[in-house]
Specification:
The chain folds into two domains: about 5-70, Phosphorylase Kinase, domain 1; about 75-250, Aminoglycoside phosphotransferase (APH), C-terminal lobe (Aminoglycoside 3'-phosphotransferase, Chain: A, domain 2). The protein is about 45% helix and about 20% strand. It has helices spanning about 35-50, 80-85, 90-105, 115-125, 130-140, 180-190, 195-210, 215-220, 220-230, 235-245, and strands at about 5-10, 15-20, 25-30, 55-65, 65-70, 75-80, 150, 160-165, 165-170, 175-180.
């Protein structure tokens, strides 16, 4: 593949997405590990084989020294962009996203990484937390129920593509087997960092459809916030996340 012949259709912190011969090519940035592309491709392939609407993976290749995933091109638009253009129907769009997330959570995650291990690694390795905070959050994880529900790990409307064939779910690199309430908490947190109203809409809808008490989701906010701090966050978000870790967010959340 000659990258000069491809069309750039998206760009993120870790990778650029190109359209080439009616296929989507996700090319990781040079600073990313060579194993990251293969790791994500394997998780996405597992989700696809489980019958979930994930893009089909064709192969993992190297382009100009960068790892890349060649996958099915989904002709569509992020559900989040559609929602922002039509906020009067936000409840409807969030409802559709929740229906699909509940479907994902019903899948047995055999062969996927451990949610508990992934969260612990993020908590123990990030520079924002003190030793005491890391120990407290790790102790909370030790009380995590032993479940093996499939969790996307970064589920929100910008990772959903509305296409002619329905909604497709992208970015499976954080997928794991664990407890659905933590996956819901992660989604809630992502929305909360951008717009509280959307976050509350989302939580109301999910908990209503899944018959899940909100308190069971919100009690994991310190852990999920602590793990989020290990990612590429802004200074403003880091300040909010540290408050959540310490339960100091006050009326912002509770």
């Amino acid at each position: 593949m000659n990258i000069k012949d491809a069309i750039l259709i998206g760009s993120g912190a870790q990778a650029d997405i190109y359209l080439y011969e009616n296929k989507a090519v996700k090319i990781y940035k040079t600073e990313c590990s060579q194993g990251v592309a293969r790791y994500e491709a394997e998780l996405q392939e597992k989700a696809y084989k489980a019958g979930l609407p994930a893009p089909l993976v064709y192969e993992v290749i190297e382009i100009d020294g960068r790892s890349a995933i060649v996958m099915e091109f989904i002709q569509g638009k992020p559900l989040g962009e559609i929602m922002l253009e039509d906020m009067e129907r936000a409840h409807e769009y969030l409802g559709a996203s929740v229906d699909l997330q509940i479907r994902i959570h019903k899948v047995n995650a055999e062969g996927f990484p451990s949610q508990r291990d992934r969260l612990k690694s993020k908590i123990m390795s990030n520079p924002y937390l003190t030793g005491g905070q890391r120990e407290r959050l790790s102790r909370s994880l030790r009380g995590l129920p032993k479940e093996n529900q499939l969790c996307h790990g970064d589920y929100h409307v910008l990772n959903l593509l509305q296409s002619g064939g329905g909604i497709k779910v992208i970015d499976w690199i954080d997928a794991s087997g664990g407890v659905a309430t933590l996956d819901v908490c992660r989604s809630y947190l992502i929305y909360l960092l951008h717009q509280r109203e959307i976050a509350e809409f989302y939580l109301d809808i999910y908990c209503g459809k899944a018959n899940m008490p909100k308190r069971e989701v919100l009690e994991w906010l310190p852990v999920i916030a602590g793990a989020r701090l290990s990612e590429n966050v802004t200074a403003k978000d880091a300040e909010t996340l540290i408050k959540l870790v310490d339960g100091r967010a006050g009326g912002m959340v509770y």
